């Protein structure tokens, strides 16, 4: 249970809780402006003022020495490990929207740049890394991690005449605006503003349709209930440049402007996140969604029946908060749910993975085996550099069980057997990526046998690709992408909901694979004394975290294709409307029509 593909949004939202410890600046160096925030928090206030937070951020000056060290270390980490450093220089496949980027050259350009404030430097590097549009690869500072919220979320509908509109999904301040059309944002057409924000400021997917979906709000199953996901336009992690946004609304022909200030929660993100994502839909209660009836609640997944078909909702593959026993329970319950369907004679299944942000690959591998016992998972490899070779040698030598760098974690695709030694794993494979010759390890499958030993052996189920359909809003990331893209290669039809009109788009994003970050690299360096000589090259300042894709996965059907760069559009596109945005059962009914075997 170790090779975690970290989740995308949930990672950002749940992992950092610096605010409960304090604000930027340690006790010796804290500025007066940041001290003021600290004092407010002491009084137990729920929210901070935008202007106070800005004043604190503005009080921490740019440090050129630190900036140069930071850039050099980022370059070393990326050159040493980042699987897509070279492929990022290639033109996107049609369907994807990103600019090819030579990250090392771009980072070098920052070496001579001056800033007034540290956060400006951090944001610039973060924005540059975001240009990869690789949701696994991010750069953040724990010192600048407040959230900024508009108290307000939007969604997009396609009207019967084919035109697209932005509307108010939910409004915590003035519910009378709900379902009014948002025609303009700060005086510019709302669709253009959201699209440009999705194009330039979101990084979770190489597909602009998916980024557009996550800029807006959508309902998804998570945190044991239906909650609002996405809303990245209204819920920001970077200090907005201006204190307010104005929206022009058309409410039943009444046209007026509203202006919203940024709300900054004073508490840690773990505490505020459930509040800002809470949503009560009139179509959903504990036992039903629309006309669908809950037949089994497996905590992280739910099993419903509707008309003559079954629906499986899966919110996550993450086992990060579970101990070993709970993980076994989590996966056993999924088997129980499917078994209930089989016992009821259900032959049509909608798999709804909307807003599933990934988690642990063992969960993916297990569910693939459960549904298709005879197919292989996607193979993977890691970049071979002096740095990664040192890690592979040392960690294999220590036989760290299940570790990404231990050759014993894999089965070779060449021999269908374990590797005999490190050299066989490292191999001699050179590929041309982004015009450069790059070495990667021998392609291999994760060998899950140790993990599978403690998991239940599922019964033989009666279904094939003819009996299922996959439904997502494209925000099926990481381990989730690995799962649904593999099922799609086994010919399960796919449906994605949302995006732009008449544009079939990705049903999953960021297939991975396994990620590492500068904190885990620092831990590894201190755990293995033989790697100490790399410490000065690879150790980033404690307040900064660089996260990156370490392993890449390949298609099975097209073995040379790296999944992250392979545009896979869904077979079918659905749209949200006023009802289906709040009643997922309406989408289930539409998706069920695309199951190949209808009786
Ligand atoms: C940033 O945060 C670290 C703790 O993570 C703290 O030691 C440091 O003083 C902070 N830096 C600034 C400039 O506030
Ligand atoms: C926020 O600013 C307003 C005025 O803009 C002020 O009345 C209020 O007291 C401030 N609140 C905090 C927590 O600073
Ligand atoms: C600037 O950063 C360097 C390296 O992190 C550090 O040693 C130095 O104390 C910092 N300077 C100031 C003025 O904070
Ligand atoms: C709303 O604000 C915009 C500027 O952001 C302005 O051009 C427009 O006239 C305003 N509309 C109304 C109805 O007040
Ligand atoms: C969006 O990205 C652009 C380009 O990186 C940057 O200049 C701008 O500040 C970003 N805007 C927001 C709201 O983050
Ligand atoms: C406002 O919305 C109505 C439909 O709800 C539409 O008929 C009307 O043209 C819209 N007005 C403007 C100025 O967009
Ligand atoms: C949930 O909704 C269904 C259908 O509207 C209704 O039959 C059922 O009693 C409701 N259950 C609860 C617990 O409210
Ligand atoms: C539930 O089914 C009834 C009867 O077929 C139908 O009238 C109603 O619109 C359905 N409700 C939803 C939310 O789909
Ligand atoms: C490995 O297994 C695959 C099927 O999974 C098979 O097609 C291939 O021939 C096998 N290769 C070897 C060397 O046995
Ligand atoms: C997978 O690893 C186990 C030991 O953990 C080993 O016994 C088994 O042979 C391996 N499977 C393959 C196909 O290499
Ligand atoms: C690696 O492959 C290249 C050509 O693909 C070959 O020239 C070289 O001898 C190989 N090296 C080893 C150690 O096998």
TrEMBL record:
InterPro entries, per database record: ClpP/crotonase-like_dom_sf, S41A_metabolite_peptidase
Superkingdom field: Eukaryota
Keywords noted in UniProt: Signal
Signal peptide: 1-20
Transmembrane annotation, as ranges: none
Name of this protein: 7976_t:CDS:1
